[in-house]
């Protein structure tokens, strides 16, 4: 038996109706025939809640002494021994009395779920462990009893029980929550309107986060790229400059104003590693983002506006926050800037906020003090200073005559500035131009290229040497900084890969998406082939770039062994990136191997199950099919015998035995074939709108007359089903119920509509089935109790459930109140009644009238 399902009714405050909603759900399930018991419910003396306990079976509570007072606790062992289908356990965060098996009630619930028992429970938002401090700051009350958030998040269903603060205060004033002598104190403290509104917001946001997780998983599984503005997601673009903290705080305020707003900070670096960002400032901004509840992302991309927009759309963001440009007015001649480009290309789905700050329009200072590597703008300034600087300086010095020594110092200063700005080559150009000007303008003989004084030659040589030395030092420092930044980025990526290995994560598409995002590619694919001459096949692919059928067609190919390669499209990355790409490729190969090993393990389990089925099938064929064949053979041999004169009564009895044996063979062979089709996955239902009042009566052809009471209203909505499969499933279930019903007791077949579903219940008064055997009776070749071997091969219910699941429905077994078993077939109601052609209905009638009940109907449908 599998793990039970947990449904939690979550409320914002005491008295919103969590327990009431749980009990109402229990009554709904009980009316459908589900076995529900009250394991523990605390009514707090509320009369309407206590009234709902009427009609529900209760498991007696345990009585324990706690601080000299007798307290009632859930009797976990008694509930496990009772083994209901559904257990009601109130107040999930409750602390059990000393002497209990578990310290917390949610731990008791875990045992019930592990035993296959479904649980309905309740919890208040104030009891969630992560919200304890927040609730205390709102209400001034610290909740001593908490439940881990993960326990609630793992629930199969979380239903929010909501009520406005005004309605809740009215309930309190009317005495529906606390005793009359406690009402005034509660209304003036915990139940103040502001407190209740804040708690309600917490509950709504918590449930919204859970819904958002499901939405993100859906978008990922269905490759949805369009922005769905279901909640506010604020992306703030960072440059690593000091204005980043202002942008983060402004974006956080925007996120707080939206419904369940989320903050995402992104820093985009160039693929060549050249950046003027301060690592220390980025680390501080990352910490600030995390402190404000956001997430920090590092993305590589040469086109910063495009990379920022791609990230925002991939994150389903609704707003982008950018800072005002630090450029001066004249610097806009080099382009419109990141903010203007993003605002122009964002489209109608994204809003862009340009935030002013203290660094706006102040110009970009030299990043030398931050140890940043050289950038393209800095190189341009370096070449301008190296080539035009000496000429401008010579023109300025022509008005005065400070002397050769001072002239050389001034030219050396220009060379050093060119080195600081542009590195080695601009500084060498400045030294060359400066030395030529010094020789031509300031060394005798003037205005000639010759030097008369040897000391001036030495001075010029020293001047060039000093300029070259300074330039080489600056260039070396810039290269070392660039290498350090690249190695840091590589270490972060390799740390991510190592973490994946340690955590055992096996998502190939997730890993490929990380490669694509990290290196700013359009698409990433893992290709493989069986041999050197075999064609390439795609094992996994992400992105929207052009499809790649061979590694040679990609912009970059990273081989993994002889017959596997990582193929990327979008751009050609620098050679330094191939080392990290090789690590990604190796990890992708490991993930693929791990996934295939898991698939092989699943196939091995399926093969073992198939072997078990075949073994049981052989046993069934050797015994259960032999019995009717032997009976038919004996009857035919007797009729053909010339030594005996048979009377008309004896002859009729022998013929009846032959007919019964043939019917049994037909039924057994039909179930064996159906089980084989289910096992091999070849059942393909032809779904259409189907009337139950037409199909269900035809399914009763294989049972004696007057053994079934039929209650299928004509007003029921049509169900979305395959008529042939539905008839066969109902026939097997009804025949099983008639077989185990006591003599004189009729089987009830009733149908009813519930929301968007229709339930068909087959109720018998037989011996019933214990809870531990309710799932086992649906396994192939299983008989319950002391059923004789001649009763069949044990496939009827297995085939019925297989057909029900093939049609998108369910078939479950529950106890019949008063004794017996109730089989419930649940199907989806059809959205609209289709126009049925006369041929479809005609085929069903011919099959029912001329064939042998459901078997003929099924064969006729397959033949058509």
- Oligomeric form of this entry? single chain
Mean pLDDT across all amino acids: 78
> How large is the share of residues in beta strands?
15-25%
The helix content is 40-55%
Question: How many angstroms does the end-to-end distance come to?
Answer: 39 Å
Strand order of the largest sheet: 3-2-6-7-1-8
User: Mind describing the biggest β-sheet?
Assistant: 6 strands, parallel
Per the principal axes of the C-alpha atoms, what is the gross shape?
elongated
Low-confidence stretches: 363-373, 786-793, 832-864
The helix-and-strand class reads alpha/beta
Helix tally equals 26
Describe the structure.
This protein is an alpha/beta fold and 864 residues long. The chain is 48% helix and 15% strand. The chain has 26 helices and 24 strands. The strands form 6 sheets. A 6-stranded parallel beta sheet has the order 3-2-6-7-1-8, sandwiched between helices. It has a 5-stranded parallel beta sheet with strand order 11-10-9-12-13, with helices on both faces. The longest helix is centred in the middle third of the chain and has 50 residues. It is elongated, with a radius of gyration of 40 Å.
